[in-house]
Amino acid sequence: MTEASESPSPSRRKRQRQAEAAADAGTDPAAGQSRPIVNPLRKLDFLSSGQLEQIHEASLSILARTGLVFNSPPALALFRQAGARVDGQRVTLERSLVEAALATAPAQFTVYARNPANNVPIGGDSCVTMPTGGAAYARGLDGQRRPGTLADVENLTRLSVMSPEVHLLARKAVEAQDVPVAVRHLECWRTVLTLGDKPAVSGTVGGEPEAEDVLQMLAALYGGEEAIQDRPVALCNVNANSPLVYDRPMLEGALAFVRRGQPVILTPFVMAGVMGPATLAGALAQHNAEVLAGMVLTQLARPGAPVIYGTATSNADLRSGAPAIGSPESAISIGACAQLARHYHLPCRGGGALTDSQLPDAQANYERMMTLMISVLSGVNVMMHGLGTLDSYLTIDYEQFVIDTELIGMLTHMLLPLEVSVDSLALDTIHEVGPGGFFLDAPHTLRHYRLAHFLPRISLRHSHDQWLAEGGLSATQRANALCRERLASYRPPRLDPAAEARLNDFVERRKAQLLG
Question: What mean pLDDT is predicted for residues 320-325?
C-alpha cells in the first residue's frame, strides 16, 4: 500500500487539528465553539499517598474539633437535622457526615449551553476555562487601567464568544462600576446571556435575592423553571471567608442554586501566613476542611447536587502582606488541591493564568504559564481566572486575554494524543526523499503541515529582517491588533426572540422594583 492510498484514522487529534487549522485560516463558521482541553495523561501528584492521608485526617480533625462558622439560619437548620453539633453559629462535623456526603456528590456532570455545541463537561479528563472573575479594574486597548464598566463586560463576553479556548462566560469578568449595585447583577447577567451562547459562572454576593433573580433569568431564557430544574445551565462560585467561616450571602445564594440542581463551586482563598498557617501543609489542611464542610452542606440540602472542589489558596508575601498568586506556592497548592479532589472523586476548580504583575509583561507570562501548566497537568477541571488576569486578580487586561488564548491553545495542542499510524509514520515518504533530501515540498508535508503543527496567531517565527519589515511589533502589540480584529468580527449568536423578550421583561420589572 502506498501513502497516497492510506487514509488516516478519524482520531480526536486529527479532528482537533483540523478545527485549529480552519479557525486559523478564518474558514471555520464556528470558530468560537468550545473545545475543552483534554488531558489523557496520568495526572501530576504533588503529595505522596501518605502525605495525602495525613492532610485528609488533619482536615477531619479540624472539622470535628474546631469546626466552622456558618452565618446562615437555613444552613444551621440543615446541620442540626443531620445530627451535627451546632453551638451558636459554629458547626462541628464527624467523619460519618463527611463520608456520607462524599458518597452522593457526583464525580462528573454536564453544564448545558444555549447552543448545544457549547455544552461543557465537568470532571474526568476535561479541563474548561473562563476569564478572570470579579476584577475591579480593566486595562483597555489604550493601555490605561480604569474602573470596569458594563461596556467592558460586553466586550469581554464578545471576546469569550469568539475564542474557542473559552468554555465558560464570566458574569463579572470585571465589575461594571457604572451600573448601580442594586441592579448590577441583572445588567451583567443579561449581557452574558444575550451576547453569548456558552454557560456562565458567577458568585451571588447579594445572597438569596440575587440568586433567585439569576435563576429566574435562566428560567426565562431556557423555557421555564422546569427546564432548568436538575439540568445544570450555570455555575455559582462560593468563597469561604477563610479562616473557617462561610458568610450568609454566599451560603444562601449557593443553597438557592443547589435546590434547583445547579452546580456550586466551593472556593476557599487561604493566604498562607495571613488567613491560614504559614506552612503549606497547614494551609492545605484548613483549606480542605473548608471545602469538605461546604460540600456536606450541599449534599444535606440536596443529595446528589453537583459540587466542585475549588481552590484559590496561595501564600502571602509577608514582606508586604500582599497575595502572591503567581508564586511557586500557588502552583503547589493548585496541584495538591487537584489531587485531593481526585481522591474524593470530585471535580476540581483551580488555577488558571495567575500573576501578580501589573502589566502583560515577562513576569505576567512566566508566572501564568507555570500555573496554567500545573493546573492542566494536575487534573484541574475548571480554570477560573484562565484569561486576562493581572494584578493579583484585581485587573483584567484585554491584550493579556488574547495572549492567554494562545497559551491555552498551545497547552490544548500539546495534550492531544500523538497519532501513530501508517500514514503518520510516513515510511514511503522517508524512502522517496532519501538521505540528504528535502521534505518541504513532499506531498505528505503539503497534506499534513496544517494538521501536524500548532500554528500560532501571536507568536512569530520570522527572521529579524522580516519582523522589522512587518513593523517590529512586540507580542503585546500583536495581541492588541488581534483583539481589535476579534471584537470587530463578532456576530451575536442566534437568540430566540420569545426567550429574549421574556428575559428583558423580567429584568426591566426587577430593575423598577429594586430602584424604586
Answer: 92
d(CA 308, CA 192): 22
Q: In what order do the strands lie in the sheet with 395-397?
A: 145-147, 137-139, 395-397, 389-390
Q: Indicate if the pLDDT at residue 31 is higher than 60.
A: no
Identify whether the C-beta of residue 200 lies closer than 8 Å to the C-beta of residue 218. Answer: no
Mean pLDDT of the chain: 93
DSSP 218: H
Q: For the segment 234-277, what is each residue's pLDDT rounded down to a tens digit? A: 999 999 999 999 999 999 999 999 999 999 999 999 999 999 99
Residue 168: closest CA among 160, 156, 158: 160
Measured distance CA(480)–CA(79) in Å, rounded = 51
Give me the pLDDT at residue 35, please: 81
CA distance 347 to 448: 36
Q: How far does the chain reach from its first CA to its final CA, in angstroms?
A: 78
Q: Is 441 exposed, middle or buried (0-12, 13-18, 19+ CB in 10 A)?
A: exposed
Task: Tell me how crowded residue 321 is: count the other CB atoms within 10 A of its CB.
Answer: 10
pLDDT of 379-408, one tens digit each?
A: 999 999 999 999 999 999 999 999 999 999
Rg (CA), the chain: 24
| Fold assignment, 102-414 | TIM Barrel (3.20.20)
| Eight-class DSSP state of 3 | G
DSSP line for 327-350: SHHHHHHHHHHHHHHHHTT--EE-
Short-list 271, 266, 268, CA closest to 253: 266
Give every CB contact of residue 252 below 8 A, 6+ residues apart in sequence: 72, 74, 75, 207, 208, 211
Task: Give dist(CA 189, CA 251) in Å, integer.
Answer: 20
Q: Measure the CA–CA gap between 273 and 76, rounded to whole angstroms.
A: 29
Q: Give the integer Cα–Cα distance in Å for 513 and 494.
A: 30
Residue among 254, 248, 249, 284 nearest 266 (CA): 254
For the chain, give every domain's residue range.
102-414
pLDDT at 452: 86
Q: How confident is the model at residue 498 (pLDDT cuts 50, 70, 90)?
A: very high
Instruction: Give pLDDT, residue 386.
Output: 97
